[in-house]
């Protein structure tokens, strides 16, 4: 790469070359976010007045807060945090610590050989032991796994867990883990050849209070259809930007079960995975509640299958939203011991509010605007779009450099990107609202 371009990219990722304390970044981010919000409020005064003529002033303030002020504040804080983020280098990128990988599997006969083959290709020089927990499969998951492990020369232990539920399967496997660190991996998730190495390198380079490291999960089946193409950008930019910001403040809120690394003793101390629809969310918050920290490693990449039909997509994302409410009920943000995690978990308290307003006010307001009634969707709404684009552009630069280091290429997916920017939230918010209602009314859990 040309030296000048390289320096420009490095500057755009970290325009502040000197080390800045995390607490300073946190305060600075909020100061800028407050200033942006005050500017938005000032500019939106005519909008508030016009809307109040139809719905009263308190309702107008409530609505516009959910549409513009709160999202604008959160997006500004994230943008500033990303600009200030500087991922420290690992002390040793080639660790040799023994690792155990837990795979909870149910009816994964088609996928399991491919998953195991990517584990076998790891450039990790330490010992890798795989524990597959067969959770009442009715196909040949067990037989296919054993056959593949013999062919690939993998150290594989197959267990059976008759009780349904991923948390039961993982806890069954946890009892057999003897290594200091362990990973969880979904049976349909494929590891980049350096995935294990970078996760272990990150946790070994981190302070002793770091108990887990979440990996970067990307989409492997984005060529299937348009829904998968849109989700590719959600994982690549949306989810990655949130995790990167949370990782900066040492409180990644979800060490996802699909692909994360944990210290074994920490997992056992909190009792393993809880009986919850969002077991990985509740587990992570339980770890944070202990005063431990959870990091995010963007260089540790895995590729997962995403839903390719709307029914399965809605079921997955409503389950995620329900899991967030479940975690809030079990672990209150103000009970978190660290200031950063109090804030990060506390942000989730406003998510139902913004999703509710977006679903029941903004979307109808967009329809009204189409017919020439600009009561709800007004000029200030547009201020959120540049911030969103800026945050995604910053992440795109990060991801592009990461992909180059991993010898990966970013797929050309312009249509998916346009739809992701303009319409994805219109799909996500109503689905999230359904998940909130399911949890609040305690409807039957559906995995």
What is the class of the largest domain in the CATH system? Alpha Beta
In whole angstroms, the N-to-C terminal distance is: 46 Å
Task: Please indicate the count of domains.
Answer: 2
Task: Going across the biggest sheet, name each strand in turn.
Answer: 3-2-1-4-7-6-8-5
CATH architecture of the largest domain: Alpha-Beta Complex
Please tally the helical runs, counting DSSP H or I stretches of 4 or more residues.
16
Backbone structural class: alpha/beta
Kindly report the oligomeric state of this protein. Answer: single chain
Largest sheet: 8 strands, mixed
Percent of residues in beta strands:
5-15%
Overview of the structural elements:
The chain crosses the membrane at residues 26-49, 55-84, 356-376, 382-403, 415-437. Belongs to the glycosyltransferase 2 family. Pfam families: Glyco_tranf_2_3. The chain is of the alpha/beta class. Helix content is 56%, strand content 12%. The protein has helices at residues 3-13, 22-43, 45-55, 57-84, 112-120, 141-152, 166-174, 195-204, 226-248, 264-269, 279-289, 310-330, 339-347, 351-370, 384-405, 414-440, and strands spanning 99-105, 128-134, 155-160, 181-185, 190-191, 210-219, 259-263, 293-304. An 8-stranded mixed sheet has the order 3-2-1-4-7-6-8-5, sandwiched between helices. The termini are far apart. The model is unreliable at 1-13 (pLDDT under 50).
């Amino acid at each position: 790469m040309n030296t000048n371009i390289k320096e420009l990219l490095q500057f755009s990722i970290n325009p502040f070359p000197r080390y800045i304390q995390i607490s300073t970044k946190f305060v600075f981010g909020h100061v800028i976010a407050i200033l942006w919000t005050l500017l938005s409020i000032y500019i939106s005064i005519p909008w508030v007045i016009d809307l109040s003529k139809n719905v009263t002033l308190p309702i107008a303030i409530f609505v516009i807060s959910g549409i513009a002020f709160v999202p604008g504040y959160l997006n500004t804080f994230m943008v500033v945090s990303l600009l200030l983020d500087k991922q420290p280098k690992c002390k040793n990128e080639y660790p040799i610590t023994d690792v155990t990988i837990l795979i909870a599997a149910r009816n994964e006969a088609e996928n399991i050989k491919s998953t195991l083959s990517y584990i076998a290709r790891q450039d990790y020089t330490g010992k890798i032991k795989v524990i597959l927990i067969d959770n009442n499969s009715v196909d040949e998951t067990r037989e296919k796994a054993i056959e593949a492990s013999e062919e690939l020369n993998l150290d594989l232990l197959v267990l059976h867990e008759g009780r349904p539920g991923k948390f039961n399967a993982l806890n069954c496997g946890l009892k057999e883990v003897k290594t200091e660190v362990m990973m969880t991996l979904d049976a349909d998730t494929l590891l980049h050849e350096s995935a294990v190495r970078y996760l272990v390198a990150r946790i070994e380079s981190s302070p002793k209070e770091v108990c887990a490291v979440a990996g970067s999960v990307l989409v492997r089946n984005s060529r299937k259809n348009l829904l998968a193409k849109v989700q590719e950008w959600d994982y690549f930019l949306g989810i990655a930007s949130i995790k990167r910001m949370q990782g900066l403040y040492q409180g990644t809120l979800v060490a996802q079960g699909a692909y994360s690394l944990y210290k074994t003793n920490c997992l056992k101390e909190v009792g393993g995975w809880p009986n919850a629809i969002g077991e990985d969310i509740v587990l992570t918050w339980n770890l944070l509640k202990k005063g431990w920290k959870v990091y995010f490693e963007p260089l540790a990449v895995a590729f997962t299958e995403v839903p390719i039909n709307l029914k399965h997509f809605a079921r997955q994302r409503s389950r995620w939203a329900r899991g967030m409410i479940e975690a809030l009920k079990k672990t209150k943000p103000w009970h978190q011991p660290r200031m950063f995690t109090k804030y990060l978990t506390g942000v989730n308290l406003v998510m139902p509010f913004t999703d509710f307003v977006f679903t029941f006010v903004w979307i109808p307001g967009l329809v009204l605007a189409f017919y020439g009634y600009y009561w709800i969707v007004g000029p200030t709404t547009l201020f959120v779009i540049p911030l969103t684009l800026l945050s995604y552009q910053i992440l795109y630069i990060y991801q592009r450099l990461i992909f180059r280091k991993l010898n990966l290429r970013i797929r050309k997916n312009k249509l998916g990107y346009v739809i992701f920017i303009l319409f994805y939230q219109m799909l996500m918010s109503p689905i999230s609202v359904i998940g909130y209602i399911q949890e609040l009314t305690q409807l039957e859990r559906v995995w």
